[in-house]
Amino acid sequence: MNWDLEAERELWADICRRDFWWFFREAWGIDHNPKARSFTPRIHKPICEWLDRKGKEWLASRRNKRPVSKYLALLVPREFWKTTLTGAFLAWLHVQDPDLSAYIGSESLTQAEIWFLPIFETLRGSNVYARFPWLYGNWEAKDRRYSKFEVITAARRDTSIKEPSFGTWGVATGLTGCHPDILDLDDPISYDRLERDSSWLDTVNAHVDTLLPVLKADGLMIWPGTRYGDGDHFGEGFRKLGVKSVDGMPFPDHSTDCIRPNGKFEVYFLQGREMDRTPVFPEQWPEWRLLESEVSSSLRHAAQIMNDPSSSAYNPLTMLQVNQCWVPKETVPFAALKYTIHCDTAFWYQERQARGDESVITVWGHLPGTGDVYFIEGHGSRIWRSEEFSEKLVQIVQRLRAKRWRIAMITDEREMFGKSGAWETLLRNAFHNVNLAMPTFVQLQRGGTQKIKRITNAAGYWVDGHVKLIEGTPGVDDLIKQMTTIGSSSHDDWADAAADVFHKDVYVPMRRIGRPSKVSESPSYPGDEWLKTGNITGRELIKLYDKQNIQFEQTPFEAID
Fold first, then answer.
1. At what angle do helices 451-463 and 476-483 cross, to 10 degrees?
2. pTM
């Protein structure tokens, strides 16, 4: 009996065209490559099936002429084959539609060419393990461009398309003058680059913004990669555009705020460990190697292996510690608290607003004699101007005073760059316009190289249990997000404003020995007459409260300078 080799070829070509899982194994040659020792169907088949499903959804929407772009993120740890899988996926999409144009981008043009090389070699028949040329023919055409940075395949039918079948770009070089169907941005960040350029995360995020008008209205964006910090392109992209769905493993509880019904990204997410701490991919990352990675650098392990930059043991504040700060609203002695308001005004600095910093107002309540502070509420905006900020601040003060709550002071950063006195004057005018006495305004020295140190010092009070978070209070999620990513977040405006509550001119770092079992709802304190008018400094206020008490003990943390 003669074996019909042509019938076998046609059968396998059809199977691989219909199913990306079999395309990856047969056409891409993974099953025949002896070097693919860590190939594991338990890990890689679900990823292939996810890519298959998302790719077919995108192709179907284009055939139905529904101009809707699709955003995919393959967010998995190092060495989980993300680049190999997405490279094969791009080739599989071209088998479905040979007229597609796909660009592969990375940190540099050279790195993008390295990611493109397996596609380049496989399509031309140079990969001895792949069956692609046998199934679909040699796609290198002598009369068409076929270089290591740009390719027009022999399979392309529409010769009027100006974009190549495959192209490459780097973050530094940019991507202009073309509108491809697919953009594959593969790990545009490296630790080497971050060490050489401390602003590289901002550079990448700004570059990602420029890609939005480049991609066609019905295009496909793919982000394979791992995390480098809360402010990387995954963190910023998920916050700005939202996450529509998560497959693979669920996001950590503290990272679910970006998931929303109108989200843009569809994510396949994996971590190096299961919830019970067992290795997810022991064939590549066995227990001993995971431990070695964590000991070598906890911060990098949290980002690169766990895809959760805030989970590092070296973070000053963890979500587990934050969870100990929650208190029910009905247990908060609002009338007994002394209130302070702390601001961070990004609108004075155009470069801060341009990179996404918010102007923030946070309200805190101090329980006298205890050292405990309650986060009452917070509000922020990236587009507030000075008059809008002032209006919001006046509204907050009006609302608090309507409840007969005592506001001791408002704080903000000390004025710089020629605006000395201008901001306080603007605020006083805003309060005067509504016939309201403005609370004492105190300007504090912030910023500079000590910012992270101040915020880290503030985190110590959270760990010590002096910070109380009220369930459901406005702005609490924004504050927690930044407090649990100190030093790794691209934005720290909420944390910066909140650190003022522990400044030495604001915070009373004492607590009474033998704390009373019950707090009166309407206590009377020396100096209330000054609090009502607001004509008292922070130092004078501290002295008044100190006189009220007989015995104190120092808290474990010093007030922040």
1. 110
2. 0.68
